[in-house]
UniProtKB/TrEMBL annotation:
GO terms for cellular component: nucleus. It comes from Coccomyxa viridis. InterPro entries: Beta-barrel_MTR4, DEAD/DEAH_box_helicase_dom, Helicase_ATP-bd, Helicase_C-like, MTR4-like_stalk, P-loop_NTPase, RNA-DNA_Helicase, SKI2-like. Residues 624-636 have a biased composition (Polar residues). Residues 315-516 form the Helicase C-terminal domain. Residues 87-243 form the Helicase ATP-binding domain. SUPFAM superfamilies: P-loop containing nucleoside triphosphate hydrolases. It comes from the Eukaryota. GO terms for molecular function: ATP binding; hydrolase activity; RNA binding; RNA helicase activity. This is Superkiller viralicidic activity 2-like 2. Residues 609-636 are annotated as: Disordered.
Length: 1018
């Protein structure tokens, strides 16, 4: 059916298909509320659905018809179906969530929203997560609409304008303050709404959406998200108005995904433009990944090194040169390290990708930008080093760059004057700057705990930069790999679903105080209205259904003599625990080390202890041991190995203390053992990890493997001959055959060293543990089931039933939590902290102290307020105050010493005392706080640096005082200025003129030169 030029495949909500589940993008949506409509024009499709508030089930679920009369804005191109449908929703006065791929054209909706506001004399607010993005959008909108203002905290331009561009933090502050500007808004555009899942700042989005007046309508612009309908249902319920979902998987420029194996000579197409995974090409690429390249970590020049080779021999150089030869530029090369970005860019030194006219253009843009800087700032090393690289068409973009240089690079890249850009993943968020080609230097990234594969969401976000609409017929994505990858991992990464939009809502003291001061809401109502609460409640019916299914599954498992089986299983568990306790006593260094001579046979535990933590996800189960396990039916497996040597490594953690009463903390000992290892876990076959031990009967190879002393199960009295040189594979294999021969000669079990007679383990705790174990073993031997022929089968059923019972208990706990208000106990604890510290009185009324703390949003509000009220800033100079503020905003670790000058020791001591007081009260109020860790989180790395800056030191001079990147230091100074502004507002609330002068003096001293250079977009 066709209506008003729009094809509609679903007639209404009562059609047969409306009751089915429809896949929107990657999301399977149960459509109980209404139908889903497919809209197609010229082969471009989008899906439309609508989330309705309760009580409006009879409302139409069809896409709104176009508004009669002229449009608010005409575009010089034909709108795609998703753009046209979203605009119709806005014209109908409804909220809309638009989910589309990067570069699909979501900005069109934001532009139309501004045009609507100007046409209808209504205020429109556009919010973005980044100041840089806000500046860019302000420039775009201002050039077209003129009546546009900007509010980012740093800059305020025309705050009375009809169309206001601002960061989400500014919008939240205006809502808390009851701003007239927000009350006048008819439509709010939330760009990059998927930032709501950001761990630190996502809560700002939720707060502002919840606090927004009910009359406001929304336009949410997002990358593709699997649970788009869930988010729309939250909006519909909370604001009691329909929220449409316009979703498209259509990509204006299709992508081709290639793989470039380290040490290889070519590219392999693994996913074509029709999204077909080419497994044959993938296997060929993996085969081309040589073990030598894997060992060398690929010659991509990590940490500035190219492994002793010439730069032109590195993989990245070969790849970039090939890209330029095939006219696949411009290209964005994504790396996960700022230092690596710069090192890789330096390898491009032999390349000049621009002609003479482009050299002059780059130079003109560069000097026009930096001419506003002082002569000293223009001589900064980072400024001077960048121009020669940019003239050659090579750029870098990461958070360590000076903001003005980042903007120069962005402008040059948009003008195609940078052909190769080395960037971190932050470049893929927010900024709309596509390229023809995207290159990943690695398929793995370090996430703080270890290396892991990229998630499909991360891959989609970055690869989405490939392909420029209207310029390229296809986008090209190249994945460089130096690690063996399984097809399932590759398919999941390259073709997987985008990241789910989930809530990261959390409480803060400033939030609570502002809510208590606000008439618009209270803490409980905000919790109830949050997206996190909605998601939790939404899971309740499914949880109850799961509980019923699990209970039925549990009750269906029956066995003869269930009570006796349970008793036997518990005795076995007690036996396993007893053996484990005895082993921990026997394997203490003072008992075991004298017997760790080369050739000594040792039984080694293998259930996961032989794998690096980062590799647990792609490991395989350990093989069964030929000897009985000593750790229970489902415990650790063991294999026999030969000791080679051992060494001591540092001091142990507190948890590794010896088991004997009164024993001192033990050192950590590593024992090298010769054992059989599975071939797929040997070096060169995957990421760096310890080989996986296996029984001698399992196919594998002999290898020397390091294990911890605590991983040895027991020691044998037998020793074998070990060759002096174990480097030849034959020597290792012959020694391993000797281990197997010992096992063959002792079919009843390899003889063991006696803990008491041979190893002198004679303390009372050991004898007591032995007696307990003997008692348990006696009970097992006399048990009625000890000789039952079907014992193992009945025990297996018992284990199954216990596992399901545990799942039932976990599901019931989850359901109980879902049925109650989220964070309720934390809310009570935080309120208790505020009351005990005097921020609210016994009746819950915010005190003067609480009103001051409510003004602090960009640092620890309680510690700063405690300092203010306890004379922490009394008699301080401006330089001391600025240096003190630095410890409130800086959280990153640096390589330089954290010691501070004598003039700051007193103020820092006062800050730590205030932090200790806050932490102790929080701990006593049942908050999870480690007092020492909390106090040490206020780092002093930049205190002297910021103090020097406030004295008038040049930026180049203060850079010599620290090892942080220039961009990181600029961010720190700007955050200190932001906190000083908020502290000034707090001091004005108090009426403390001296403090106001102190903080304003700090702002005046630090707000200068390159640190606060005006944005090129303004």
């Amino acid at each position: 059916m066709e209506e008003n030029g729009v094809k509609r495949s679903r007639a209404d909500a009562v059609s047969e298909a409306a009751s089915k589940k429809l896949k929107l993008g990657h999301d399977v949506l149960p459509k109980a509320e209404g139908g889903v409509n497919y809209i197609e024009t010229d082969g471009k499709t989008c899906s439309h659905a609508v989330a309705l508030p309760e009580g409006s089930e009879d409302a139409s679920t069809l896409p709104p018809a176009p508004r009669p009369g002229p449009a608010a804005k005409e575009f010089p191109f034909t709108l795609d179906p998703f753009q046209r449908t979203a605009i119709n929703c806005l014209e109908a006065g409804a909220s809309v969530l638009v989910a589309a791929h990067t570069s699909a054209g979501k900005t069109v909706i934001a532009q139309y929203a501004c045009a609507m506001g100007l046409r209808d004399n209504q205020r429109v607010i556009y919010t973005s997560p980044l100041k840089a993005l806000s500046n860019q959008k302000y420039r775009e909108f201002q050039e077209e609409f003129q009546d546009v203002g900007l509010m980012t905290g740093d800059v305020t331009i025309k705050p009375e304008a009809s169309c206001l561009v601002m960061t989400t933090e500014i919008l939240r502050s205006m809502l808390y303050n009851g701003s007239q500007t927000v009350r006048e808004a008819a439509l709010v555009v939330y760009d990059e709404i998927h930032y709501l899942r950001d761990k630190e700042r996502g809560v700002v989005w939720e707060e502002s959406i919840v606090l927004m007046p009910k009359s406001v309508r929304f336009a949410f612009l997002s990358a593709t998200i699997p649970n788009a309908m869930e988010f729309a249902e939250w909006i519909a319920r909370m604001h009691r108005s329909p929220c449409h979902v316009v979703y498209t998987d259509y990509r204006p420029t299709p992508l081709q995904h290639f793989m470039f194996p380290s040490g290889g000579d070519g590219l392999f197409l693994i996913v074509d433009e029709r999204s077909t995974f080419r497994e044959d090409n993938f296997q060929t690429a993996i085969a081309a990944l040589t073990s030598s390249a894997a060992d060398a970590g690929s010659n991509k020049g990590k940490k500035g090194s190219v492994n002793g080779k010439k730069a032109e021999e590195s993989d990245i150089f070969k790849l970039v040169r090939m890209i330029m030869q095939r006219k696949f530029d411009p290209v964005i090369v994504f790396s996960f390290s700022k230092k690596e970005c710069e090192a890789l860019a330096l390898q491009m030194a032999p390349l000049d990708l621009n002609d003479d006219s482009e050299h002059k253009l780059v130079e003109g843009v560069f000097w026009n930008a930096v001419d506003s800087l002082s002569e000293d700032d223009r001589r900064l090393p980072q400024v001077g080093a960048l121009l020669p690289m940019l003239k050659r068409g090579v750029g870098v973009h990461h958070s360590g760059l000076l903001p003005i240089l980042k903007e120069v690079i962005e402008i040059l890249f948009q003008e195609n004057l940078i052909k190769v850009l080395f960037a971190t993943e932050t470049f893929s968020t927010g900024l709309n700057m596509p390229a023809k080609t995207v290159v990943f230097t690695n398929a793995r990234k370090f996430d703080g705990g270890g290396f892991r594969w990229l998630t499909s969401g991360e891959y989609i976000q970055m690869s989405g930069r490939a392909g420029r609409r209207g310029l390229d017929d296809r986008g090209i994505v190249m994945l460089m790999i130096d690690t063996r990858m399984e097809p399932a991992v590759a398919r999941s990464m390259v073709q997987g679903a985008p990241d789910t939009l989930h809530s990261e809502f959390h409480l803060s003291y400033a939030m609570l105080l502002n809510l208590l001061l606000s008439e618009a809401a209270d803490p409980e109502s905000l919790l109830k209205a949050s997206f996190r609460q909605f998601q939790v409640e939404r899971s309740l019916p499914a949880l109850n259904q799961r509980i019923a299914q699990l209970e039925a599954e549990r009750d269906a498992i029956s066995m003869e003599g269930e009570e006796a089986v349970g008793e036997y299983a518990r005795l076995q568990q007690a036996e396993a625990e007893g053996r484990s306790l005895i082993r921990s006593m026997v394997m203490q260094p003072r008992h075991a080390l004298p017997f760790l001579q080369p050739g000594r046979l040792a039984r080694v535990l293998t259930d996961g202890a032989d794998r690096a933590p980062a590799e647990q996800e792609d490991s395989v189960p350990a093989q069964e041991d030929s000897q009985p396990s000593t750790s229970g039916r489902q415990g650790q497996h063991t294999v026999w190995a030969a000791v080679i040597n051992f060494e001591r490594q540092g001091r142990a953690d507190a948890g590794e203390a010896e088991a004997a009463p009164g024993a001192k903390r033990a050192a950590r000992y590593i024992v090298d053992v010769l054992a059989n290892c599975t071939e797929d876990s040997l070096p060169g076959r995957g990421p760096k990890r310890r080989p996986r031990l296996a029984d001698a009967s399992t196919p594998g190879q002999a290898a020397v493997v390091p294990v911890q002393l605590q991983e040895l199960d027991c020691l044998s009295s037998v020793r074998i001959y070990i060759p002096k040189d174990l480097r030849p594979p034959d020597a290792r294999q012959m020694a391993l055959k000797a281990v197997a021969e010992v096992q063959r000669r002792y079919p009843e079990g390899v003889p063991l060293l006696s803990p008491e007679e041979d190893m002198s383990v004679k303390d009372s705790a050991f004898r007591k543990a032995q007696r307990r174990l003997e008692a348990v073993e006696g009970q097992l031997a006399k048990h009625a089931l000890a000789f039952a022929p079907d014992l193992e089968a009945r025990l297996s059923l018992w284990d199954q039933k216990q596992a399901v019972s545990a799942q039932v208990k976990a599901a019931k706990r989850e359901a109980k939590a879902a049925a109650s208000l989220i964070l309720q106990s934390e809310l009570k604890s935080r309120r208790r902290v505020l009351r005990r510290l005097g921020y609210v009185d016994e009746d819950g009324i915010v005190t003067l102290k609480g009103r001051v703390a409510a003004t602090i949003q960009s640092s620890d509000e309680l510690v700063l307020t405690e300092l203010i009220f306890n004379s922490g800033f009394k008699d301080l100079s401006v330089h001391q105050a600025v240096g003190l503020m630095a410890s409130l905003v800086w959280r990153e670790k640096t390589d330089t010493s954290a010691r501070v000058s004598a003039e700051l020791e007193g103020p820092i001591g006062a800050l730590r005392e205030a932090a200790k007081r806050v932490a102790k009260v929080a701990s006593e109020s049942k908050m999870t706080v480690d007092v020492e860790e909390y106090v040490s989180s206020f780092r002093t790395d930049l205190c002297d640096v910021l103090a020097a800056w406030s004295r008038g030191s040049k930026f180049g001079d203060i850079m010599k005082m620290t090892d942080v990147f220039e961009g990181s230091l600029v961010r720190a100074v700007r955050r200190v200025e932001e906190v000083l502004r908020q502290a000034t507002a707090g001091a004005k609330v108090m009426g403390e003129t001296a403090l106001v002068e102190l903080f304003e003096g700090g702002i005046a001293r630090i707000k200068r030169d390159i640190v606060f250079a005006a944005s090129l977009y303004l």
